[in-house]
Batch of 2 targets.
Target 1
Amino acid sequence: MINKKNNVFLEEYENKFLYKKSKTNLNIEFNRIAFIFFIFLVISIIYSIQLLHLGSLKIQDDIKPLITKKNYRADIIDRNGNYLVKTVSSIDIGINPIEVIDKKKLLINLQLIFPNKNFNKVSKKLEKNKFFYLEKKITANNYEKIMMLGDKSIKSEEKLTRIYPQKNLFSHIIGQIDDDNNGISGLEKSFDDKLKQINEPLKLTVDTDIQFLIREVLIKFQLIFKNIGSTAILMDVNNGNILSMVSLPDFNLNERNTITDLNYINRATKGVYELGSVFKTFTIAAGIDAGLIKPETEFLDLERKLICGKSTITEYDNKILSDLTVENILIKSGNIGSVRIGQMLGIKGLKSFLEKIGVLNKIDFDIEEVGQPIPFKWGKCKLATVSFGHGITTTPLQLAKAYGIISNGGFDINPTLIKNKKENNKKRLIKKNTSEAINKILRKIVVEGTGKLANVNGYEVGGKTGTANKSVKGGYSKKKINTFSSIFPTSNPKFVLVVLMEETQISPDYIYEYRDGSEFKLKGSPRNTAGWTSVEVAGKIIEKIGPILATKYIEN
Amino acid sequence: MKKVVFAIIFILILSTSLVKNSTKEIEDRIFMVNENIRPLNLELGDMLLEYNYLSSPDKLTQYQNKYFEKDLIKIDITKIKKLTKKNNHIKVSDFIEKTRDD
């Protein structure tokens, strides 16, 4: 029994606990710090996303209240920032007669607001019980008054409208738009897409004050010489920027009339004319540039008459000498002398020169209303007539460009209406000495030749006149195209001014004041030539715009 | 090592958030300013239009005819003088130099 008590039985301890991975495959390694970071990361990402979203808020273009993308059109300003065209919202007032409670009371109230309106018509319209517009584009003051009436039948409609504060002044340049906001002529047409896209106003090269002054002079002389139309172009000879381009007759853009009369064409760009003796400058410039002649080269025993095919070429002035230098051929406007120089150049020489200065082919311009010079076949007789400016046509704009190239030292220019247009590198087309020689001769024409009436003191005006009979089918009419192409100042030309007057008549009452210092006055036009019409107009224009050009542009 | 990476990421996120927050405030202010400028621009445009119309050469000529008896005079460029200031002295000279044939 005791033995049993003292017996110690040792039994090997078998630990049955065994650490095993969970059989559920859910194995989470728990790390407290990592978990905190993870939560922070998630919060930060959510916060960042929210910040990015808030930060990306931008001013949307289509928030503009009334000017939607559909009817938006950029404004147009002149070179000084003056509005030429502006899109503004306007209010039209209409009446729905069905909603009128007291017709008599309404009519009395409306009469107080619009005292000049014919209310008999309004009364009749009210009887018809059909919606009608009472007044379009009303003033803010009248709008306030009419809304104060508090009549439910009065309906206001806000519309976008294109306003032209300068009325007729830039009608041919700017052009018109249709009711669907699409340009149909002028810059409104050629820059249609751009005007719908750009947010800034379209800046032009034109100057409103100069345009006004030139137009005033043209209108005044249209009454004096009774011409059916006229045009004037003022261009910077160094960069082709057009400061003014007037064509008469013009029209008020605000009236939105449909123009069908052909007399309303843009004569400056669309009018294709035979311009006469202004082309002699090109013949002589071509001869000098080719090294065939010099200003002092003499032509002796020039014929009085040349017969070529069916046409006879004579001198306009019978008193012209038969021995003339090149300089005198241009000053005296000799036809035969010009023909001789043309013949020395040959068809190839003259044609390539005319192509180079851009008078033969259609010009690439900012507006689409551009005339195509009438093509012709070159031949011996054609060469002869083209040499003195007959049988060849071009537009006044191309004439201005050509005179610009010849006077600016011989560099190519592209006439433009758009300010800050990228300029190409100046490409020389004719020699510098040709340009200098021609400028001197042009000055002499104004000092002692046919351009005397444009010799405005202080501006060194130079230029060439051109009197041509208007061509009709199969020949020429007695109607005149009088042109004066001028440059100033000739010692360092800055501007070219072309004045063209169509179908001028002699004025028996107009008093010419000579500019030679004699203070001589002459009543009535002696002849219906450029020298007595377009030169006088150019002189008056330069006299008016000269101080502005000199102080505003040349100084800068 | 892991702690350092996490700390860097955390600092970067925090600093980005702070920068973005301040940027957002600035952008909000720019947005507000732009929104306030818009009606002012419209008003300015209308005022300029009115000014351009009332001061257009056509209108000024009308006013001149209506309110003044004397006609406008032409300016003779040869009579315009040029003032040039040099060393506190004002020099008066002709605006254009007379040429030989003038």
Target 2
Amino acid sequence: MKRKLEVSELIFKIISYTLLTIFALACLYPFVYAISAAISGRTAVEYGQIVLFPKNIQFDAFKRMFNDNMFWNAYSNTLFVTFYGTVWALFYSILGAYALSKKRLLFRKFFNFFLVFTMWFAAGIVPQYLNYLDTKQIFNAIGIMDDKWLVVIAMGMAAMNIILLRNAFEGVPSEIEEAAIVDGASEFQVLTKVYLPMCKSTIATVALFFGISRWNGYFWARQMISNSNEHPLQVFIRLRLEEFTDAEAMAGWNQPYASDSVIYALIVCSIVPILIIYPFIQKYFAKGTNVGGVKE
Amino acid sequence: MKSKAADFLIYDEATGRYRESPEQAVRDDVEKHYWLHVGRSILKDWRLYLMLIPMLLVFLFWRYFPMYELLGCFKVSDEVLPVSEQLFSGFSYFKRLLIGGDDLSAEFWRAMRNTFILSFYGLCFGFPMPIILALFFNEIKSNIARSVYQVLTYLPKFMSTVVMTSLVVMLVKQGSLTSGMGIVSQFLAKVGWISEEVARSGLLNNPRFFRPIYIISGIWESAGYDSIVFFAAIIAISPTSYEAAQIDGAGKWAQMRYVVLPSILSTIVIMLITRIGSLLNIGYEKVLLLYNTNTYVTADVVSTFAQRYGLAGAAKGIASAAEMMNNVVGMLLVIGANTIARKASDVSLY
């Protein structure tokens, strides 16, 4: 049976559709504009004629960027840091969370506090900086000259992610673990054969969080990586933008594209890979916030 | 709890005397040789402790060792000596910052005030938006249409801070109406919300516009993503509640008021408390990427103050003292918020 819509309901529906549409379009618009501005001709961009659709289409701004070795270098550095950083963070987080999830672990309260305290109190930028400088010296002394490895190993730890994993592991019924032990599984086999498959979706979510924070990492990478060949993409983009705002006419006057277009092309290129994998990871991303309400 | 003799003694019929129960003997043994038992248990489960080690080391090296460097707040800054060999200067840096009466102290107080104002505005305007969005999402009955809207609104969350701020910088860039001006400035100037001169000199160079830009870009970035929690709470409401309300003659507003709001109130309270807890942990990266010398008046927060003096400049002691004060207040807020959350509901945040 269909009930007739009441007036108040109808009004609310109309309002919500309108406002949602406006907000969704506002979310989308900057991306569309960036793409249009990146592929529009020089005069159109410089005279501000682009509103939504591109005019006098050219792809030279993209070409210029694709011919730039530094750009590809920055891209590969970001992939390097994202991949190894996520693997390393997952390695110690999963092992640590597994140990913390066991009731028979002695001093469990202390270890938990050890983790949680880092969420409450951070030493701050300057002490962290001094610490990373020392770390860099030590790394150099033992022969790790690449600052990329410093970024991979020493940065991006998140206590919250470990607690998410710990809670997921605690949710696995202990009978299953006991059954595995009766069947002769070692501690390590219990983890890999029982716990990991059962907590797959939480692990995927946490991996995604680590991966995104690595992909987006900017501040410390810029502070600690001295060699510009090792700069990740985010640092590269920012340096280009600063260079560009300092000297606006950097593109030269005989180019078929405006200097703005280069920046927009750079922005588009850094977003596109994320847009491609977005549909596949979106469900884990949405799940992550729901497991955020944590129990002790 | 009252302890009875029978808990740890048993009556021996043969001798007619009490003697120690074997259970109590074990307990005594454990107490006497506590560390021996700890050692035995660790030996038995050594794999567990081995698994714990990498995580502990990582956090020790790169989260706890920096706290040792905080000693620098109380010592005479020295570029050459390690912090352990510097001379103590007591609370002089803190005094200088808090009641120094000079330019530096004024700048510190400005940064402190800006931190509070920025996060307070962020809370006032940024917090209700996701709830409103979630209510709107609930109105859309078609699943496909709703996912389209949701996917579109989550989208900005996926951009890095650098890309987001680069876009903002480009969209409100300086320039004249006919050349080079960012599209958003153009629009605002044409509609008449800002004068043309203001738009021409660039919105990000104008201290009046830093806070609105910061807040609005924050809402744009995360409102959609933050609405997930509230939407999950709303769809958990049983349809029978709505039906019952309708039979009682409740219109849309009455349903909102008496069905939806009470059901998601606990979620709202928890999220609000979390937000208040992290009030002072403002995203310094975003401020750093958006501000410039023209907008220090409204944009400079404690972290950027510390970054400017400690990393770009050489006043490491002063800079870390400033940030430490901010972080200690922040920690008290977090702990307070968590305690309240635990009292208010059974959910503890950590």
